[in-house]
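stage 2 :: seqdesign
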C-alpha cells in the first residue's frame, strides 16, 4: 500500500528517524493510534448499550421489523 504524508511530517520523519527504521516507526505509530480508536469505539458501544432511550426506541421499532414480511 502507498500513503501520502504531508511534506512537513515527512521532513520530520526523515530528520528524526533513521531510514532503515522508518517503516517500523510508522507501523508502530499507526498501531498505537488504532488502539486509541478501538478503545474509543468500544467505549461508545458500551455507552450505547446502556442508553435507556436507545433501548426503548429499539423495543418500539421491533414490531415494525416483521410487519408485512411473509414467513
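stage 2 :: out
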Amino acid at each position: 500500500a502507498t500513503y501520502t504524508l504531508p511534506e512537513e511530517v515527512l521532513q520530520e520523519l526523515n530528520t528524526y528517524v533513521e531510514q532503515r527504521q522508518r517503516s517500523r516507526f510508522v507501523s508502530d505509530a499507526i498501531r498505537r493510534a488504532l488502539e486509541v480508536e478501538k478503545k474509543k469505539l468500544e467505549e461508545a458501544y458500551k455507552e450505547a448499550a446502556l442508553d435507556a432511550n436507545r433501548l426503548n426506541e429499539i423495543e418500539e421499532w421491533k414490531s415494525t421489523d416483521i410487519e408485512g414480511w411473509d414467513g
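stage 3 :: structure notes
- The CA atoms of residues 38 and 44 lie 10 Å apart.
- The first helix runs from residue 7 to 16.
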